[in-house]
Design goal:
alpha+beta; nine-stranded mixed sheet; 19 strands; elongated; binds adenosine-5'-diphosphate; binds magnesium ion
């Protein structure tokens, strides 16, 4: 027998635990959701392993989760036949924090206790057991470790790992026993458990059982019955018929009694939502599924269900979350886990990477279940499969369709959508030549027509264009205020042109990559020689005359400003301002120069 060993929790875990055990949380019931979700993850893992190693199941072939409450010992026990953990994994997974962002979570719950319900999003869901328990035992057995181990902790500073004195009772899997706190005894009540488990297991694809008690009225067997039964079991069919006839003849007064029956009752239906006929799935179900999938507490902004047929058969659900993740635009390269891929209902991976879902679209959350992909290959081989490429294309197209549908039918929602994801669409228009047109069509800007909101689409702009106008005029700047002070605007506004205000940092890139829209070129009004096409041109003679007349001034300015400007010319662009500094046609605008300077710092 191995020695039992005591370990200290990582400092951050300790801090988390302190917060968890020292205050009363309204939403502490979420520990059950976290345990069910961990069990489901572990079952997903063994099912995935069994695809390439069919013997993996043998140690415990029946995939499920069972939950038993025992008031006498004040314990709640959750057992799964998932992948299990070795001694080393118990120590690492239940003692240290793998993901970053825990401090962020800690300060969030310090400010607002309800935020504890988001614990799962931060990769520390397990520790929520200490919301309701003062002692926790985790027994676990995995295929790679010949010995079953137990992990025991009373929270805060340390935990102990030892060989399980009961031996290998699990075959394979994990059994978590919570010793329930005095003030949390409600979590041993069957009615409470039924309600919570139904809620949290609805979208889990493995059966979840609760040990439950019901009363039943049963006939009391007489000695005669027992004898008859035994005889009939040994006889052939004819004897059974005989027996039945006899039973009808007798018509005895039935004797009954009421007994309590305890048994495992399945709490979920295990029919994945995406495999059901979408006509039978309500909006509420889609919303709840989104929350189960993402652990977001708010409703999704929108969603779409669709089926792929033909080249590859699959079903998919796409969700648009109500908000872009915090720091979304800064951490874009790290974005992952956008899409959960299943093959024939078996969870394969949620790390498909940017080949599958381009970065600019990684704000959506999706689920794909494909029929035709090979199951018995490694994750890596599967990820390179050409059918995945096909699915990815369909998914991207459907997502853009969904955005267009929101734009068309739900203007208020679309305003929210643009606020959250406008820059992502611009990134898409820059990156994807294929979808450029439909993405550019979705973009919204402020303009001289309405400067208070980013609400002007390029189609709107074009309907207001003047008869001879061939350009979409725009100006860049860091704010509407700054732009409205700009001398370049004057002349266009005076002539009645509408000018698009581009105030997001990504806009400069956008107009460099997207030359125009619908046959109209983007034209920066702060650059080069602006032609309107409706100027009353001076004759060559008149022009010469003017240039000559102002020559002393322009020559003097050229000398004085030689360090700062390339050249000084007479312009027709200004109406009330006497002078303006203009970027050369192929040079950077002042706004871009400022951006570059800021980036260099
Ligand atoms: P997360 O689930 O986000 O990784 P948790 O704190 O819930 O974070 O769990 C930490 C880790 O502990 C899991 O990633 C997993 O490796 C392991 N674990 C927890 N519960 C189980 C279980 N029932 N079976 C196997 N491994 C588990
Ligand atoms: Mg978890």
């Amino acid at each position: 027998v191995e020695q039992s060993e005591k370990f200290e929790f990582q400092t951050e875990v300790s801090r988390l635990m302190h917060l968890i055990i020292n205050s009363l949380y309204k939403s502490r019931e979420i520990f059950l959701r976290e345990l069910i979700s961990n069990a489901s993850d572990a079952l997903d893992k063994i099912r995935f392993l069994s695809l390439t190693d069919s013997a993996a199941y043998d140690t415990n072939p029946y995939l499920n989760v069972s939950i038993v409450a025992d008031k006498a010992t004040r314990t709640l026990t959750i057992t799964d036949s998932g992948v299990g953990m070795s001694r080393k994994q118990l120590k690492e997974n239940l003692g240290t924090i793998a993901k970053s962002g825990t401090s962020e979570f800690l300060s969030a719950i310090e400010k607002d206790k309800d935020k504890v319900s988001q614990i799962g999003q931060f990769g520390v869901g397990f520790y929520s057991v200490f919301l309701v328990a003062d002692r926790v035992t985790v027994a676990s057995k995995c295929n790679d470790d010949p010995v079953q181990h137990v992990w025991i902790s009373e929270a805060v500073s340390d935990f102990t790992i030892a060989e399980d004195p009961r031996g290998n009772t699990l075959g394979r899997g994990t059994q978590i026993t919570l010793h329930i706190k005095e003030d949390a005894l409600e979590f041993l009540e069957e009615a409470t458990l039924k309600e919570l488990i139904s809620k949290y297991s609805e979208f889990i694809n493995f059966p979840i059982y609760l040990w439950a008690t019901r009363t039943e009225t049963v006939p009391v067997a007489t000695e005669e019955d027992v004898v008859e039964k035994e005889v009939s079991e040994d006889e052939d069919e004819a004897a059974v018929v005989d027996d039945e006839l006899e039973g009808e003849e007798k018509e005895k007064e039935p004797k009954t009694k009421t007994i309590e029956v305890s048994e495992f009752v399945q709490m979920n239906t295990v029919k994945p939502i995406w495999t059901r006929d979408p006509k039978d799935v309500s909006d509420t179900e889609y919303v709840e599924f989104y929350k189960a999938l993402t652990r977001d507490t708010s409703d999704p902004l929108s969603w779409a269900y669709f089926k792929g047929e033909g080249e590859v058969e699959f079903r998919a659900i796409i969700y648009v979350p109500p908000k872009a993740p915090a720091n979304y635009y800064q951490t874009l390269s790290d974005m992952q886990r956008t899409v959960r891929l299943f093959v024939k209902r078996v969870f394969i991976t949620d790390e498909l990477g940017t080949d599958f879902m381009p970065r600019w679209l990684s704000f959506i959350r999706a689920l794909v279940d494909a029929e035709d992909l090979p199951l018995n290959v490694s994750r890596e081989t599967l990820q390179k499969h050409k059918l995945l490429n096909f699915i990815s294309k369909r998914l991207i197209k459907k997502a853009i369709d969904l955005f267009h549908q929101i734009a068309k039918t739900e203007p208020d929602k679309f305003t929210d959508f643009i606020r959250e994801y406008g820059p992502a669409l611009k990134m898409g228009a820059i990156d994807s030549q294929q979808h450029r047109k439909r993405l550019t069509q979705l973009l919204r800007f402020a303009s001289s027509y309405n400067s208070s909101l980013a609400s002007i689409g390029l189609d709107d702009y074009i309907t207001r264009m003047k008869a001879n106008q061939t350009s979409i005029f725009f100006i860049t700047g860091s704010s509407v205020d700054e732009i409205e002070q700009s001398p370049f605007l004057e002349r266009l506004l005076a002539r009645g042109y509408e000018v698009i205000y581009m105030i997001e940092p990504i806009d400069e890139m956008l107009v460099q990559h997207v030359p125009g829209y619908n046959g109209k070129m983007f034209t920066n009004i702060a650059k080069g020689n602006l032609k309107f096409g409706d100027e009353k041109d001076l004759t060559v003679e008149e022009e010469k005359e003017q240039i000559e007349q102002f020559l002393p001034l322009t020559q003097w300015l050229t000398t004085v400003l030689s360090e700062y400007v390339e050249k000084v010319v007479l312009s027709k662009r200004l109406t009330t301002s006497p002078m303006a500094i203009v970027a050369s046609e192929h040079g950077w605008t002042g706004h871009m120069e400022r951006l570059m300077a800021a980036q260099a710092q």
